[in-house]
Amino acid sequence: MTNFDLMKELHVAGQSKIVMLVIDGLGGLPMESGGPTELEAARTPNLDALAAESICGLSAPISPGVTPGSGPAHLALFGYDPLRYEIGRGVLEACGIGFPLGPSDVAARGNFCTVDENGLVADRRAGRIPTEKAAELCQMLRAIQLPGVETFVEPVRDYRFVLVLRGEGLSGGLTETDPQQLGVPPRSVEALVPEAQRTAELFNQWIARTRELLADQHPANMVLLRGPDKTPQLPSMAEVYGLRAAAIATYPMYRGVATLVGMDILETGETLEEEVETLKTHWAEYDFFFFHVKKTDSAGEDGDFALKAAVIEHVDEAVVPAITSLQPDVLVVTGDHSTPALLKSHSWHPVPTLLHSRYCRPDEVRAFGERACMRGGLGVFPATDLMQLAMANALRLTKFGA
Amino acid sequence: MTNFDLMKELHVAGQSKIVMLVIDGLGGLPMESGGPTELEAARTPNLDALAAESICGLSAPISPGVTPGSGPAHLALFGYDPLRYEIGRGVLEACGIGFPLGPSDVAARGNFCTVDENGLVADRRAGRIPTEKAAELCQMLRAIQLPGVETFVEPVRDYRFVLVLRGEGLSGGLTETDPQQLGVPPRSVEALVPEAQRTAELFNQWIARTRELLADQHPANMVLLRGPDKTPQLPSMAEVYGLRAAAIATYPMYRGVATLVGMDILETGETLEEEVETLKTHWAEYDFFFFHVKKTDSAGEDGDFALKAAVIEHVDEAVVPAITSLQPDVLVVTGDHSTPALLKSHSWHPVPTLLHSRYCRPDEVRAFGERACMRGGLGVFPATDLMQLAMANALRLTKFGA
Questions:
Q1: Closest residue to B67, CB basis, from A3, A375, A399
Q2: 3-state class of A284 per DSSP?
Q3: Distance (Å, rounded) from C-alpha A251 to C-alpha A279?
Q4: How does DSSP assign A12-34, residue by residue?
Q5: Does A375 contact B380 at a Cβ distance shorter than 8 Å?
Q6: Looking at CA atoms only, how far is residue A332 from chain B in angstroms?
Q7: Do strands B160-166 and B150-157 pair parallel, antiparallel, or not at all (unpaired)?
Q8: A3-84+234-393 CATH pick, 3.40.720.10, 3.90.1150.10, 3.40.109.10, 3.90.550.10
Q9: Where are the beta strands (DSSP E) in B91-220?
Q10: What distance in Å separates residue A334's CA from the closest CA in chain B?
């Protein structure tokens, strides 16, 4: 019996509400030996007070030492085993912009990039061209025709777009072209399984035409494709947990993951304050809210320790009291993974987490931070446990066995 | 290789003795924010002294957030994966009263209950009629004849009884009739698998006749059936661990689980002092004793924080020193699950646990309580690990591999 079987069998109806506040890339590291992490450095009176009444711990996203991408990290938070349910980056982006993917479509995430005169990658993000410019270039790329399939090229945000191939006999099981380093040429799409051979060739034809069309568009004179794949079939959170679930997230990819697990995506603005307003507006309509904060992760990726700490302080001030004033039965505050400014990237470190409810058996943690949470009652625990614990604390699970 | 394969391969003979003291529903919660749990509130000098010389932790019965029934929770303590070995409530009760269940018998747990003039359940326990009254009613119900099968109706305790159907071609895979709420009619028994169709019909015929026979017996004017099923085949503790194991328990259901894993059931009295006497009397005859304390759980279910703490104090005074004076090689003190008075029910919270032996590598825990055990050397661990640890500390496991 899997954990999902258990949840499907045990969940019961209720009026209780669960909020999962995901502060993206929350976990961090000290910049120098003996120093604080970003979260420890931030002044967070509201999170500290909440931690004192919560059970705390460190959430481990995938497997010890394994750094997750955003897709699998979020799936884990929603209780979906990320090693079982693999989702391509293209599918995530397509869902995120609301593109209606069919079951036989293959979607790839695209980056506009810069290549030098020798065709070697000089900038994997084409100087971060603005969304408007990317939209213009996507329009240009829509002219590309491929034999026997329809193509869709949709701008996402900044230098990113989605490429979808639609037609008979397409297959996932493909490599990506981003070499993940500079000074080397983009790779070709290769088939990992024999039935994906034709799909790989179609992608490569498309890339070859793109190179011609973009030749004069420096810095966006080439593209890189990432994570080409079909849509996986995931059970919905309604099936697994019996929850009416909604997502409040400003970035397309997070809306994408939420869509894949059957959440409703709520229209919201770009700021934390607008996200809070969205939560208040829809409070009565759902049992579960996924509330996503993006800018901690971006600051960590930019190596900006002070900015990441400042974003955390902003969450503490603008988001936490607003959520607690709604009196959710269960409030989980966590991150999908760590993004230490020291590493300028996602990392494998487990993520500070608190779970607050009337029934949570508080531990002795009195501040919300990496070292404090290490001593928490949840210990270091798999991220996939969080939803079960939230369900229990919301009194939405009945007893197993007599 | 499963853990049971490992245990079967590695266990060796020995003279050492293991006692597992199970304080039912031991774990608790504070009644108000910042307050103590039942165990923390209780004065327990003997358990505290033992904890100081033990390795401590919190035992997790099934899966995070999942509240166990007593059957699966005890199986886990004995090392049996409760998600693999599922046991119906009827089988547990039948074993508990020493009814000799055959492999093709189907047993259901029965409750006498009260229905109103419209046939809706008004009291799921018939005002908790006494055992003597239930015995009288069971005698009456033995008159019911069913085509092709023999029936047995055996009183258990208070309002509870066991109904066993014996005959060819009976099957488990049946629903129960207890609606678990008031103001609705009892359900019918339904077949969950096609081969259980006839068995379901037989149960429903029996229930229809019961309704007629009990019509004038208000408040016990109807019955509810729970957990009808056959006996699962479990490997015995002798096979798995090479232990001669005995159970000292006053309540039928716990004797039932013990029987299923092959323990001898020792005759004992109703009080803790009588249970202690039983332990002393049989000390020489067994390697492993399961010593069960029931009243902590009942007090928790009644929401009686003070009574639950008082029962714990009684255990500390009357049971713990008596056991330690016998000098068992390994003493485990734990509970099968938590039953916080705050929730008036079993709960998902992990259970304070200590393991004492000459070889246990003590941690820094100095008191036996929820928050103290959180910091223990065992951390939060699966309940199914306990027997392996007890076996190791009893020096009854040989090395794995060369």
A1: A399
A2: helix
A3: 16
A4: ---S--EEEEEETTBB---SSTT
A5: no
A6: 14
A7: antiparallel
A8: 3.40.720.10
A9: 106-115, 121-123, 150-157, 160-166
A10: 17
Which of B56, B59, B66 is best to mutate for the A interface (most A CBs within 10 A)? B66
Out of B29, B66, B380, name the one closest to residue A10 (CB): B66
For residue B85, give Cα distances in angstroms to B111, B232, B254, B401: 24, 7, 16, 28
Q: Which residues of A touch B374 (CB under 8 A)?
A: 363-364, 377
CATH architecture of B3-86+234-393: 3-Layer(aba) Sandwich (3.40)
What is the domain partition of chain A in residue ranges? 3-84+234-393, 92-229
Rounded (5°) CA angle A156-A164-A125: 40
Which residues does chain A have with pLDDT short of 70?
none
Residue identified by tokens 């005859």 is B285
> Which residue in chain A has the smallest CA separation from B379?
A379
Q: Any idea what DSSP says for residue A126?
A: G
Interface of A with B in 364-383 (CB under 8 A): 364, 375, 377-379, 381
Interface contact flag, B69 A401, Cβ < 8 Å: yes
Q: Which residues of A touch B29 (CB under 8 A)?
A: 359, 361
A64 in B contact zone (CB under 8 Å): no
Q: Give the pLDDT of residue A2.
A: 86
ipTM value for the complex: 0.85
With CB atoms and an 8 Å threshold, state whether B374 touches A363. Answer: yes
Q: What share of chain B is helix, strand, coil (3-state, %, to 5)?
A: 35, 20, 45
Cα separation, A203 vs A131, whole angstroms: 23
pLDDT tens string, chain B, 402 residues long: the values are 889 999 999 999 999 999 999 999 999 999 998 899 999 999 999 999 999 999 999 999 999 999 999 999 999 999 999 999 988 889 988 887 888 888 899 999 999 999 999 999 999 999 999 999 999 999 999 999 999 999 999 999 899 999 999 999 999 999 999 998 899 999 999 999 999 999 999 999 999 999 999 999 999 999 999 989 998 889 999 999 999 999 999 988 899 899 999 999 999 999 999 999 999 999 999 999 999 999 999 999 999 999 999 999 999 999 999 999 999 999 999 999 999 999 999 999 999 999 999 999 999 999 999 999 999 999 999 999 999 999 999 999 999 997
**Cα separation, A237 vs A61, whole angstroms:** 19
Chain B residues close to A401, C-beta within 8 Å: 68-69, 71-73, 82, 86-87
Contact call for residues B318 and B276 (beta carbons, < 8 A) = yes
